[in-house]
Amino acid sequence: MKLSGSSKSSPNKKQPVGLHVWRDTPAAGGWNMAADEALARRSEETNRVLMRLYGWHPHTVSLGSFQRCVDFSETPEVSHWPVVRRPSGGGAIIHGTDLTYGLAVPGSHDWSRGTEKLYAAVHGALVEELSVRHLRARMVEATSRETEQSFYCFNRRAFGDLVIEDASGTSPHGNHKILGSSQRRLSGVVLQHGSLLLHRNPHIQGEGSHIGLGDVLQAGSGSVNDVVDGWLQRLADRLNGDLITETGPSYEKENDEIARRTERYESVAWLHRR
Amino acid sequence: MEKSRRYAKSHEWARLEDDGSVTVGISAYAVEALTDLVFMQLPDVGATVTAGESFGEIESVKAVSDLYAPISGKVVAANTELPSQLETLGSDPYGSGWVIRIQPDSVEQLEALMNQEAYDELIGG
After folding, report:
1. What is the CATH number of the domain that holds A157?
2. Backbone phi, psi, residue A100, to 5°
3. Contact A165/A175 with Cβ under 8 angstroms?
4. A186: distance to nearest CA of chain B, Å?
5. Within a domain: residue A102?
6. How many domains is chain A partitioned into structurally?
């Protein structure tokens, strides 16, 4: 397995600096997964840290790479929703009122070595940004065995998850998880997926219902967009370079390749692999 | 051919057995680095594997990684008990934590892999 994300082509490459970011328009699940995979391949080819931020249309449930499909079909509140299986691991996410990111880090960068560095960098940058906005956020220090098998990602508590203090006393965990991520370690590049909950989804009740960042930001602390902008700038700072906001869609040059990859992600065989 | 373990850069180990098959597993270093393993997918017996290409996947709490075949050949056995006993990978990675056995296209492929000394150097041991 690729612990470092390194490949034969990467040992002599210089560690990249700066962060290139695209803000893509909402797309369907299969397309989003395919576009992230294409982003990862481009990251390896260009030796750059690349990130795309996106939404989902239609609203969709994504399953972790090895979650059982039957667990989805037996969850009544979402079993009628569109569904896609991610290449990355973790639990199910209800997409619609979240901001999803795909971050690709080439094997030449130190962040690709081991799973924990990348979590610490990405989630740590958001903890910093939230702290200056008077939100008590932290990263979970150890994985909770009790929550490991929960169907929903946001009901799990694993190392690196970003949680905020439960001021309302409504969470059985004593905190609210608002950012969860998972990685797919490919040859020459690491793709990290993550979901930042922005607001509680009004269409979901019960175990799948979670508060988002916008629900807990206090007056005078800025908007959700302000937080995201600050987070990205801190991430670029940690990469010792500029935040480069790209215009147009991230996948402009790879439409044909993404269409081919989309077919796989939309296939019954992929969805029912487990 | 020496029957000690050989290693791929991707941290899989390979050992030639008396019957000419090659046992493949994951190094103790890699198992420790992955931490908190939750799922493993193995190939079917009879499947063909190619050196350097994925033959299975392993999921930890925070990452999914491919397992890469250290040599080419046909899978003649898979440790089907392993996915339900992933702790074995950590407790006995070179024994009962074996992953698959391959009938190699040629045993000379093992020469291209690292010996223990070279692997120790790779992982900084």
Report:
1. 3.30.930.10
2. -95, 145
3. yes
4. 7
5. yes
6. 1
Averaged pLDDT score across all residues of chain A: 91
- Mean pLDDT, all residues of chain B: 93
Q: For residue A87, list chain B residues with Cβ-Cβ distance below 8 A.
A: 64
pTM, two decimals, is 0.90
In this complex, which of A3, A115, A183 lies closest to B30 when CB atoms are compared? Answer: A3
pLDDT of residue B106: 95
Kindly state whether residue A140 falls inside one of the protein's structural domains: yes
Provide the pairing of β-strand A19-23 with A243-245: parallel
Contacts of B99 in chain A (CB under 8 A): none
- Residues from B in contact with A at Cβ < 8 Å: 10-12, 26, 30, 33-36, 38-39, 41, 57-68
Q: Would you say the C-alpha torsion A21, A26, A31, A32 has a positive or negative sign?
A: positive
Among chain A residues, the shortest Cα distance to B67 is held by: A1
pLDDT exceeds cutoff 50 at A8: no
What pLDDT is stored for residue B1 in this prediction?
53
Q: Quick check: A10 pLDDT over 90?
A: no
User: For A206-235, what is each residue's pLDDT tens digit?
Assistant: 999 999 999 999 888 899 999 999 999 999
CA dihedral B118, B120, B122, B123 (to 10 degrees): 170
Chain A positions touching B61 (Cβ under 8 A) are 89, 143, 148, 158-159
Q: Is residue A148 part of a domain?
A: yes
What structural domains does chain B harbor?
A: 6-105 (2.40.50.100)
Kindly give, in sequence order, each residue whose CB lies less than 8 Å from that of residue B16, ignoring residues fewer than 6 positions away. Answer: B1, B2, B3, B22, B107, B110
The CA distance from A123 to A155, in Å, is 18
A6 domain residue, yes or no: no
A152-211: per-residue pLDDT in tens? 999 999 989 999 988 777 788 889 999 999 999 988 899 999 999 999 999 999 999 999
